[in-house]
Amino acid sequence: MKRLLTIIIVFFLFNNCYSQTTNISPQTDTAYSFDNVPIVYEKAGSGEPVLIFVHCWSCDRSYWANQLEYFSGKFSVIAIDLAGHGESGFRNEWTIENYGKDVKAVVEKENLENVILIGHSMGGAVVLSAAQQLDIKVKALIGIDTFHDVEQMFTKEQFNEFIKPFEDNFPASTKAFIKRMFPENADSILVERISSDMSSAPKDVALGSFSDLFKFKEAENFDKISIPVRFLNGDGYPTNIESAKKHIKDFDIKIMKGVGHFLMLEKPGEFNEKLEEIITELKS
What is the pLDDT of residue 24? Predict the structure, then answer.
């Protein structure tokens, strides 16, 4: 999965890359992370469990506009800007653990006790880290197009070879890379927005996050938790289900067909239905 996560990691809209009309008006608030970095988030709805949506590398909470609209009528929903993304503040060290602390800061600011963490791509690693930090407050994790092979790891040499084009020419390499991650029949306007906006992400934040993600040991971290874990993945990349079952005590997966990496943006209606099915199953 590491290869997928690393490849996938580069595919995200930056800031206002995706605009969606919504009938809700979420309240914007700010929590302060362990290092006093302001973490901006939006919240809407009421009830439990509280659904917390975590974006991936170089995108922001606006990715979840459809989900805030859809789920706020049934649950409390929160979408977070991790440090260095969206409206949140900056720090010097871009690690998965620190991003997990950003999520923890929001949960503690809101005094939440019954949380389902939902993370897209790199956001999956972030919520896995956050779950360990928050312990019993987290009732389940849902990974969105992530964790395709939890046992896969890459050498330093492999990472260096992969990252070099991005170090040499970040905008051009990122834009080209993003476009290759969509199916041929993808919405060309959406693809262009993603590739254009993502290629303008802050390079230091992007590469720093990318580097730490490669080091993140998914299998080892899954071994440390016992809460239910669900995957909602696309069919563009195979998921090693047997590998996941070895390290996740309570596991299940749903697959969306005919989508690229951005399931929630490419087919929001189908995505919301499948995600609601997962949440309903977790509650039962």
Answer: 56
